From TrEMBL:
<keyword id="KW-0143">Chaperone</keyword>
<feature type="compositionally biased region" description="Basic and acidic residues">
    <location>
        <begin position="109"/>
        <end position="121"/>
    </location>
</feature>
<dbReference type="Pfam" id="PF01920">
    <property type="entry name" value="Prefoldin_2"/>
</dbReference>
<comment type="similarity">
    <text>Belongs to the prefoldin subunit beta family.</text>
</comment>
<dbReference type="InterPro" id="IPR027235">
    <property type="entry name" value="PFD2"/>
</dbReference>
<keyword id="KW-0175">Coiled coil</keyword>
<feature type="coiled-coil region">
    <location>
        <begin position="74"/>
        <end position="108"/>
    </location>
</feature>
<feature type="region of interest" description="Disordered">
    <location>
        <begin position="109"/>
        <end position="135"/>
    </location>
</feature>
<dbReference type="GO" id="GO:0006457">
    <property type="term" value="P:protein folding"/>
</dbReference>
<dbReference type="InterPro" id="IPR002777">
    <property type="entry name" value="PFD_beta-like"/>
</dbReference>
<dbReference type="GO" id="GO:0009409">
    <property type="term" value="P:response to cold"/>
</dbReference>
<protein>
    <recommendedName>
        <fullName>Prefoldin subunit 2</fullName>
    </recommendedName>
</protein>
<dbReference type="InterPro" id="IPR009053">
    <property type="entry name" value="Prefoldin"/>
</dbReference>
Amino acid sequence: MNEQAVANMYGAMRTDINQIYSKITELEMEVSEHSLVINAIQPLDPSRRCYRMIGGVLVERTIKEVLPAVQRNKEGLEEVIARFNEALEKKKKDLAELEAKYKIRIKKGDGEMKDDGKKEGNAQGVLVGPAGANE
């Protein structure tokens, strides 16, 4: 393969990894929302009315009917997250193999420290410590 094809393949793999990361994050937020709902309705009377959004339609049910469904949805989301994590690890492994095979290294941005100790830009010698260092 030529250099451009390898670069395109590498970019596509990195894009895939980023998409998987964002999907995992989105699903983890949904699991968190499901947990909040479960914790909110669990201690309530099972015969109490509650409302649930199903496919854009608000339906009236009892807590006794809704709670198991929400718990099943949460478990299903957790399984999907586990599968996405497996796929992510496989993609990372494939990316590492591609990096090793073609000796790919990422270039750093321009505004960073160079090896000889000089800084880019007009630094005036101001030293800033970590946040909260004055406490």
